Amino acid sequence: MDAFYVSVELLRRPELRGKPVVVAMGTDPTARGVVAAASYEARKFGVHSAMPLATAHRRCPQMVLLTADHAHYRAASRPVMEILRRYSDAVEVAGLDEAYLDLSGSPAPKARGRRLKGDVRAETGLVCSVGIGPNKLVAKVASDLDKPDGFCVLSSELMLEAVGDRPARLIPGVGPKTEERLARAAIHTVAELAAADSEALRAAAGNGGADLQRRARGLDDRELEVNRVRKSESRETTFATNVTDMTTLTETLDRLARSVCKGLAEQGIEGRTITVKLRLAPFLTRTRSQTLGRATCDPALVAATARELLGRFELDSPVRLIGVGISSLRRDSEPESGPAQAELALPI
Predict the structure, then answer these.
(1) Dmax over Cα atoms in the chain, in whole Å?
(2) If you ran DSSP here, which 8-state letter would residue 173 be given?
(3) DSSP 3-state of 294
(4) Which of 59, 160, 221, 337 reaches 20 to 30 Å from 262, CA-CA?
(5) Which of 9, 41, 82, 98 is catalytic?
(6) What is the per-residue pLDDT across 216-234, written as a single tens digit (0 to 9) for each?
(7) Main-chain dihedrals φ then ψ at residue 38, nearest 5 degrees
(8) Are 7 and 19 in contact (CB under 8 A)?
């Protein structure tokens, strides 16, 4: 989906079309926090997702800032995924705005891809970009090459020609630390990763280097995870100024607990492990977790557990960010897998 959060917002705020729109938590553009989504008009100013909100405001002071409404985005995602399932029995949902379809059994995958694009636009008012390739990696790369409203067919052989000069982090599995190690070995781009000496690559990226090189060459044998299970649901907020007041922390914790429970309830999901996350000034992140004896999405129980976990922190610095998460998820229609032993996660 193209700029999904922003696109969903523009359906109910059409007067903002053509303007630099940014979706984030909160409405203060100078506050802490990060950009969740940016319209293509905002991207022309160098604004992009995961950018600090203050940086986005400096680059584009005229941006229109909207508060993220995740429940609304989840609701908007469902009909899109329903449309995709009409085109294939094998669909891997990779997020609210992204999915993989297996069209290998189709005699005309390109025609189906174009019809899919048309159905999404006609039935939801939203725009998507379609990439077609021989595997998940190449299809993903293709889907990003022609945005917005794109349609691109790409082969493994032509992938390097298309993205060889892009940073190596484009390849799944190359995270920030791996990117740093590759850079020390003078491997900066996808093409350099594809052509790297095997011994140098092993020294830089360990035993996983060979797999990264295969992916840089457009080779990917990952199967679709058709029954992909969500592992956790969480909410967090970054305070405009550092917080030391316990009342503010507990009230925020309660609000986040209600929000995460509402999100799970809408999906018919419950969870057993409650986690509280704190980021202390200047930038130290700590977590505490508790596994309950039964799965729940009861906001009162989750909030009470979260408050108890909050009391286990040593608040020796002001709090920048606070979050609540629920994991060990299951459908509420599924039987419990058995009694769980209460456990306490060590801080990280």
Answers:
(1) 63
(2) T
(3) strand
(4) 337
(5) 98
(6) 999 998 888 887 656 788 8
(7) -135, 140
(8) no
Q: Is 164 left (phi over 0), alpha (psi -120 to 50) or beta?
A: alpha
**Alpha helices (H) along the chain:** 4-12, 40-43, 53-59, 70-85, 109-124, 136-145, 156-163, 176-184, 190-195, 198-205, 209-216, 246-266, 299-310
Residues of the chain above pLDDT 70, percent: 93
Per-residue model confidence as pLDDT tens digits over 92-131 = 998 899 999 999 888 899 999 999 999 999 999 999 999 9
Distance between CA atoms of residues 175 and 181, nearest Å: 10
Per the CB < 8 A criterion, the answer to whether 192 and 170 are in contact is no
- State the DSSP code for 46: T
- Structure tokens that stand for 200 in this block: 């140098």
SS3 292: strand
| Cα 263 from Cα 163, distance rounded (Å) | 37
User: CA angle, corner 12, sides to 6 and 16, nearest 5?
Assistant: 60
